[in-house]
Specification:
This protein is mainly alpha-helical and 258 residues long. The protein folds into two domains: 179 residues, Rhomboid-like (Rhomboid-like fold); 63 residues, no CATH class. It is built from twelve helices and two strands, in the order H-H-H-H-H-H-E-E-H-H-H-H-H-H. Helix 1 runs antiparallel to helix 4, helix 5 crosses helix 8 and helix 10 crosses helix 12. The longest helix has 22 residues. The two termini are 21 Å apart.
């Protein structure tokens, strides 16, 4: 278990138990788009309410199985942002397409976590109904199509289809934003100059770059530097770029970092 997954499980279960002992509290915490300006806190609180035992059970199972690995990959702070932004985008999409429908449940946040998992490990298989193995990228596609069909066909059975779609969209956009704006900057900021002789060592080892197990955000920066070398030569690199790239070639028995 990871820190934020544990917190979210505890809070969701705690609020569900509170619902059972004080049913009226649901009316104060659910998100109803038409009343959003009067009850602004509900864009957050709706994420912790659930309509039935099976509702919370399946949401918490999804969070339990997908959440820890995603949190380990992103780090706890970014995982928390991912989860809550997915929940907020779920509320936003519901506001646009289901203005007169109230929503409750952790589904938007959990669907955001599922989207992140699919983006990092698309070929991992999930047992649908604990029986049918399906690669997670395909599960995302199938559930998206079903939510679109159900949502625009008039969501039946009390399913917040547009919240699910918003959760997917929010997570996708957040991860793309991270890749574009934070990966390379983080590593460039950690160095000020390269050690003496790095350029010579890099030139001798450039064909041995090892990106095994490296995060996609980091791979993007490594590939950018390699493209720069190919186009302009190794001498065109800044000192920070040389030191950054040196982490991924076998220099002085150094292991690559992720």
């Amino acid at each position: 278990m990871t820190p934020w997954v544990t917190r979210l499980l505890v809070v969701n279960i705690g609020v569900y138990l509170l619902q059972q002992s004080a049913p009226g509290i649901e009316n104060l915490l659910l998100y109803y788009p038409a009343r959003a300006l009067v009850t602004p806190w509900t864009v957050i609180t709706y994420m912790f309410l659930h309509g039935s035992f099976t509702h919370i059970l399946f949401n918490m199972i999804g969070l339990y199985f997908f959440g820890p690995r995603v949190e380990q990959r992103l780090g706890s702070a970014r995982f928390a942002w991912l989860y809550f932004l997915s929940g907020l985008s779920g509320a936003a999409v519901s506001t646009v397409f289901a203005y007169n429908s109230a929503i409750i449940g952790a589904s938007a946040g959990v669907f955001g976590v599922m989207m992140a998992y699919a983006m990092f490990w698309p070929r991992d298989k999930v047992l649908v109904w604990f029986v049918l193995p399906v690669e997670i990228w395909l599960l995302i596609v199938i559930t998206t199509v079903l939510a679109l069909w159900s949502g625009f066909g008039g969501s039946r059975g009390g399913v917040a289809d547009f919240a699910h779609l918003g959760g997917y969209a929010g997570a996708f956009l957040y991860l793309k934003w991270l890749e574009r704006n934070h990966g390379a900057r983080k590593f460039r900021a950690r160095v000020t100059k390269a050690a003496p002789g790095v350029e010579k060592k890099l030139a001798a080892s450039i064909g041995k770059v090892n990106l095994t197990g490296v995060h996609e955000i980091t791979k993007e920066e490594v590939n950018r530097i390699l493209d720069k070398i190919s186009a302009e030569g190794i001498g065109s690199l800044s000192e920070a770029e040389k030191l950054f790239l040196s982490n991924f070639v076998p220099m002085d028995d150094r292991k690559p970092i992720s």
